[in-house]
Amino acid sequence: MFREMERDIGLDDLTPTELDVFLAAHAVTPKEGEAVPSDQIRRHSLVSELAQATYHRALRSLLELGLLERADGYKSRHYVVRSERADS
């Protein structure tokens, strides 16, 4: 069932690193639709051991895939998990 849900929302095509970054972002989001700073995602145990460049590549990929988006009202480094994708 979990694999089917992953397929439905497009997570089955993610690399393990992209999936870890996405799950970390989702885990640290305080409330659906709220912005979360990149450094808070970065400190999550799923991604804290990743090389900085690897983390940023995965983050950029998630933005391009539409799973994360830049948060309105911030100059940079704040992201929102796309709830319609994450909770589908």
Strand content: 5-15%
Q: Into which percent range does the helicity of residues fall?
A: 40-55%
- Please give the order of strands in the largest beta sheet: 1-3-2
CATH architecture: Orthogonal Bundle
Order of helices and strands: HHEHHEEH
How does the overall form come out from the CA principal axes? globular
| Largest sheet entry | 3 strands, antiparallel
Distance between the termini: 13 Å
Count the beta strands. Answer: 3
Protein architecture, described:
The chain has a three-stranded antiparallel sheet. Helix content is 50%, strand content 10%. 17% of the residues are buried. The two termini are 13 Å apart. It has five helices and three strands; from the N terminus they run ααβααββα. The protein has 88 residues and is mainly α. The longest helix has 14 residues, at 52-65. It has one domain (2-86): Winged helix-like DNA-binding domain superfamily/Winged helix DNA-binding domain (Arc Repressor Mutant, subunit A, Orthogonal Bundle). A hairpin with a 7-residue loop joins strand 2 and strand 3. It has helices at 2-9, 16-28, 38-42, 52-65, 83-86; strands spanning 36-37, 68-70, 78-81. The mean pLDDT is 85.
